[in-house]
Amino acid sequence: MADSNLEAARGRIEVLVTELDQHNRLYYLHDAPEVSDAEYDRLLRELIELETRYPDLRRPDSPTQRVGSPLSEGFSEFEHRVPMLSLDNAMDADELRVFDERVSRELGLEEPVSYVAEPKLDGAGVELVYENGLLLAAATRGDGRVGEDVTANLKNCQNIPLVLKSGDRHPERVSVRGEVALPKSGFERLNARRAKRNQELFVNPRNAAAGSLRQLHDIDIERLRALDFRAYAIGEGLPEDVTGQEGVLEMLECWGFTVSPESRVCRGVDELIAFHEELLHARDRMSLEIDGTVVKVNSLEQQAELGTLSRAPRWAVAVKFPAQQEHTTIKAIEVQVGRTGALTPVAKLEPVFVGGVTVSNASLHNQDEIDRKDIRVGDTVVVQRAGDVIPQVVAVVPGKRKPGTRRWRLPANCPVCNSAAVRPEGESVTRCPNIDCPAQLKNNVRHLASRGALDVEGLGEKLVDQLIDAGLVERISDVFRLDSESLQGLERMGSKSSENLVTAISKARDTTLARFLISLGIRDVGATVAELVANRFGDLEPLMEASRQDLESIDGIGPTIAESLELFFSDARNREEIVALRELGVRWPHSEPVVREGGKLDGKTFVLTGSLEGMTRADAKTRILDLGGKVSSSVSKKTSYLVAGDAPGSKLTKANELKVEVLDEGALIELLESS
Ligand code: IVH
Questions:
Q1: pLDDT band at 169 (very low <50, low <70, confident <90, very high)
Q2: pLDDT confidence of 73, banded at 50, 70, 90?
Q3: Which CATH superfamily is domain 605-674 in?
Q4: How confident is the model over 364-375, as pLDDT tens digits?
Q5: Strand order of the sheet with strand 343-354?
Q6: For ligand 1, is residue 125 a contact (CB within 6 Å)?
Q7: What is the pLDDT of residue 598?
Q8: Residue 179 CB–ligand 1 contact under 6 Å
Q9: Per CATH, is 2-65 categorized as 1.10.287.610?
């Protein structure tokens, strides 16, 4: 029995050593981890536990005997004269209590131990060596004994002193240790920039910081300048009058380093636990990412008594917060249709516990987002939930993609009503254009009944929901098919209120063209636009037949609105609804279209491009319209003139191709001002 346990342990240790080695290489050498930190910690802890139980099975090459990363090529080696150690982890308060009990026992103390508690900064550990007060070298931790010399890069970090302050109070040679981290704001900016350039995004500020330090070519100075250094230890050259970690931090501040302002002396484990809780709450407000509390026995004498193992000191422990990032797989991607018709892809995840909750869904936002991250069904992904923030899929884990997966695309049709989905140019959202799509219907009926639209008194939010849930309204025109008999079947609807509603609906039939246009809920068409369009066309038919160019020739209407109108009226279902509404008695007085006085630019179509010096493009447009001309957004054979300002771009090329006459600003002014 005992033998088979031993054999099982041997086998498991073998597996764990191989896996951890592999993960170490991916993490440190390729900045491309395949498992989450939490998963890595679990594997490492399992190995430590097995090795503690079966000390004979510990292999000399075990990852538990190694502190950090193997070296990459490119930087010269830097030997740490005093090894840079790692920290053991405590996963929760109970494990911290176990640590405290051991410390008390070994020190033979009755009273509470004095500790220093500090934030565990989630960056990259570095050592800075000063000789005669001058910065001599800066190095990464590497495997704890040998790191990489990154002096040139780190000198760009703004709060690393190049010269120590308080000149006479430091030994000839000192080494200062701490963490370089990228503030969350800098991280967001960096990723935004990378997204624009189509570069791969960093998964978290730590990877971004580590990546910044090890830039070799085309050094991005901005990234280095954004780094923040926090000092927390002295390697060599500890001044003799310093007797505790508290004194170490004071000394470091005195030399001109930034130390974490949250650090605090705690007596006993209860104070430590309270501090840890406080820090967890302060976490989201802090500028740097932290992932726990580092607890250190304060007295250096007591530290020495407790001693150090090869990997980590026995007088310190890192108490971890629940992980905010985990890995999981995407089981499916579903499409939800929102109340505005937006089609949103949502990842169905293998449930995963992250940031304190179990996450099984995450919005993928839109097609661009999916394309940029190349997210596919079956992929292993990094899922993040920080604080109260909704969970997000940060990135696909490279190297874990199964063969045969395909790029994911939004469906061409709305999954609810099957209308062809549209994505207006320049927008990231794809929408269902159908006003009667059940996913949008409640919103649209509410809008139709609202004050600024047809103003149906008494038809409020709750009643709209009831009508639709009861199946009495399946499309907006059904509002005008309601009778008091069917209304009385609804909860809390007596004969009186039904009659009242029917009367209100009847009254709403008499309206104006502008209000009718508003009531249709066309994107980008509010009261102002509706008035403009109604005045210009006088009735619905000419408006429905209008081209984009006709629409754009109205002062105050640009290409976006023109496209929205055109898209709306070209949808067959929308046209059917309009016919139905009119047949059900919705009507408005016809008015004469406003035609501009015949001007000298009658029949001429202009396209404006590039920036003008003496006037804005909007001004230019107004002046052209005032003289009877039209302004369109794209160059075609019908274009009379292209007005090209500064940096004209592709429109100019097109105009030249089509042999359209090109005017510069001066020529335009001449044309406008000549009589
Ligand atoms: S002290 C002998 N203090 O965490 C103790 N380390 O997991 C050595 N870290 O290598 C480290 N914040 O890079 C210490 N306040 C802090 C820390 C901290 C972050 C990092 C450090 C270390 C790693 C161990």
A1: confident
A2: low
A3: BRCT domain (3.40.50.10190)
A4: 999 999 999 999
A5: 357-363, 343-354, 325-337, 380-384, 392-396
A6: yes
A7: 66
A8: yes
A9: yes
Report how far ligand 1's centroid is from the alpha carbon of 266 (Å): 18
Q: Is the pLDDT of residue 111 over 90?
A: yes
Stretch (H or E) spanning 176: strand 173-181
Q: What is the mean pLDDT of the chain?
A: 90
What's the CATH superfamily of 441-508? 5' to 3' exonuclease, C-terminal subdomain (1.10.150.20)
The residue among 25 and 101 whose pLDDT is bigger is 101
Using most ligand atoms within 8 A of CB, pick from 24, 40, 87 the residue to mutate for ligand 1: 87
- What is the predicted pLDDT for the residue at 518? 95
Q: Residue 128: pLDDT above 90?
A: yes
Identify the weakest region by mean pLDDT among 28-42, 192-206, 518-532, 617-631. 28-42
Locus of tokens 């980590």: 312
CA-nearest residue, atom 13 of ligand 1: 125
Q: Is the CB–ligand 1 distance for residue 291 below 6 Å? A: no
Q: Residues with Cβ < 8 Å from 17, sequence gap 6 or more?
A: 47, 59, 61, 62, 63
Picking from 189, 182, 178, the residue whose alpha carbon sits closest to that of residue 208 is 182
Q: Which two tokens stand for residue 648?
A: 């004209």
Q: In the chain, where does the domain assigned CATH 1.10.150.20 lie?
A: 441-508, 513-583
Architecture of the structural domain at 513-583? Orthogonal Bundle (1.10)
Q: For the chain, what is the radius of gyration of the CA atoms?
A: 35
Written as six digits, the tokens of 17 are 């050593």
Rounded to the nearest angstrom, the distance between the alpha carbon of 86 and the centre of ligand 1 is 7
pLDDT band at 597 (very low <50, low <70, confident <90, very high): low
Q: In what order do the strands lie in the sheet with 228-234?
A: 134-140, 124-131, 173-181, 228-234
**Among the four given CATH numbers 2.60.40.420, 3.40.50.280, 3.30.470.30, 3.30.360.10, the one describing domain 77-90+117-265+288-318:** 3.30.470.30
Burial class (CB in 10 A: 0-12, 13-18, 19+), 211: middle
Residue with tokens 């403009």: 532
Cβ–ligand 1 contact at 476 (below 6 Å): no
The secondary element (H helix, E strand) that includes residue 116 is: strand 114-121
Work out the pLDDT band at 106, boundaries 50, 70, 90: very high
Q: From ligand 1's centre to the CA of 85, what distance in Å?
A: 8
**Start-end ranges of CATH 3.30.470.30 in the chain?**
77-90+117-265+288-318
Binding site membership of 228 for ligand 1 (Cβ less than 6 Å): no
CA-308 nearest atom, ligand 1: 2
- The DSSP-derived string for 326-367 is EEEEEEEEEEEE-TT-BEEEEEEEEEEEETTEEEEEEE--SH
The answer, yes or no, to whether any atom of ligand 1 lies below 6 A from the CB of 121, is yes
Contact 187, 254 (CB under 8 A): no
Report the distance separating Cα 584 and Cα 481, nearest Å. 7
Q: What percent of the chain has pLDDT over 90?
A: 65
33 confidence band (pLDDT: 50, 70, 90): confident
Distance 46 CA to ligand 1 centre (A): 21
Q: Which of 27, 69, 232 to mutate to test the pocket of ligand 1 (most atoms within 8 A of CB)?
A: 232
If you average pLDDT over residues 172-198, what whole number do you get? 91
Does residue 86 have its Cβ closer than 6 Å to ligand 1?
yes
Chain centroid to Cα 157, Å, comes to 26
Q: How far apart are CA 141 and CA 463, in angstroms?
A: 66
CATH 3.40.50.10190 domain extents, the chain? 605-674
Whether the model clears a pTM of 0.70, i.e. scores above it, the answer is: no
How many Å lie between the centroid of ligand 1 and the Cα of residue 232? 8
**Quick one: pLDDT band at residue 31, thresholds 50, 70, 90?**
low
Q: Does the active-site annotation cover 184?
A: no
